[in-house]
Amino acid sequence: MSAPNASGWKPEMTAASEDGLHSGPVTATGNRALMLEEPLLFEIGRADVTGVDLPEPAAGAPNRLGGLDRAEPIGLLGLTEPETVRHYTRLSRQNYAIDLGLFPLGSCTMKHNPRLNEKVARMPGFADVHPLQPQETVRGAYEVINELAEWLIRLTGMHGVAMSPKAGAHGELCGILCIRAALEARGDAREVILVPESAHGTNPATAAFAGYRVEDIPATADGRVDLEALKARLGPDVAAVMITNPNTCGLFEREMKEISDAVHAAGGFVYCDGANFNAIVGKVRPGDLGVDAMHINLHKTFSTPHGGGGPGSGPVVLSEALSPFGPLPFTARTADGVVHLVEEDGAEKFGHTQAFGRMAAFHGQMGMFTRALTYILSHGADGLKQVAEDAVLNANYILRSLEDLLDAPFGTSGPCMHEALFSDAGFGGELSTLDLAKSLIDEGYHPMTMYFPLVVHGAMLVEPTETESKASLDQFIGAFRSVAERAKAGDVRMKQAPYYAPRRRLDETLAARKPKLAWSDDAEG
Prior knowledge:
Elements (H helix, E strand, L loop, with lengths): L40 H4 L36 H12 L22 H7 L2 H4 L11 H18 L3 E3 L5 H18 L6 E5 L5 H8 L3 E5 L9 H7 L4 E7 L11 H10 L3 E5 L19 E3 L2 H4 L14 E3 L11 E4 L5 E4 L23 H37 L17 E3 L10 H10 L6 E2 L9 E3 L7 H20 L18 H6 L12
Parallel strand pairs: 2-3, 2-4, 4-5, 5-6
Antiparallel strand pairs: 1-7, 6-7, 8-9, 10-12, 11-12
């Protein structure tokens, strides 16, 4: 039950002392071998010294500050270069990263980013491109954007694509604005968007932000959209259905085509949240399922880095019915074989007759486009198909390896897609999903997605991604089984986990409501 984690470094499994720290002598530094106790910058540097030597200004030298001279000391700390580098390097070693081990949050945040992608993105012609350069100097960038756009259209079976949205939620908004523009063009003032319970949480938020009233559609006992409930609610006031497929229960919506046909028959449009496209890329084309708009998270399907607030990229593929309403600008190849960035002038010749406007000041995130296209060209069509197959295989391996111990609410609903879903049913000692997650940190893993989807109590959503080997999966499964066994047995010590992390468990409610955002040398600060 407390077997060491075979996947990497772990302290000796000694008994914890009453204060929750390792047993053993207290060190003078507060460090525990290579687990370093890192002070704040304010505790390292001093405001009365400087890490840079600058010459004193010559007597009578002109003042170029234009009246903006400093009136009083600003209190910036003086640090040498080694002090600064060491501080941030030591902090970085306290982060969990995909380069350290399996990341069960999966492609949502941490998917393997091949070094080739990074090398290409750092080529000067891509890394140094500026959005205000003259068009004739950035033809290569336009070629990359246009070729990536063609791949996205081909892989999804759609008619057009908007490349400018900056992230998944931004792409959702783009798709809903296209739908609204299409409805307005035919004089149809619909005001309701239906969102299934198994959809991503950003879907109802996006619909509400765009001015629509959101109504829920329930899920069936097997975790999929209740088709009959959906059909019963369709009517002349329904603008669209926003559906996540594969959904957040980790299941493919088998009746997707019938859903689309029903929505179209009622005069509405189908928006598909494409965040889980990596489970079906190269296997299923959403356009063949009747989808009218779908955003694609490049970081989830095509390995571009994400997390920590960006940078993101969420292109939106559009059906033939919605393509004329897509935002400006867009790339297009003219008769001379050159790719141009098309603004208002010239849009009509490409069938872009009723664009609703712009999504951003500039066209997109060049680094993300470059990485995604490199990934696609590296894999090819057959390789992308294998991406989906391996992601689904890995998730099902985890599901079937743990379902004898953990409750799998939809374990009998057929194969899961790229993520396996468990609940906290059967935990003893009033232990919760949070306690299991904190204990997993002690085993050397970042926790999985917790408490989502909301249709499952104490949800644990595990997404291994396609890049994990069977050996790494087995190591993770062993660690997960260990903490799950403890939770089932009601091991109350889990309430104090993690024991071995650089910091113990926070009062998360207090940290959210009363965060300390400024340093103070006052003991009460």
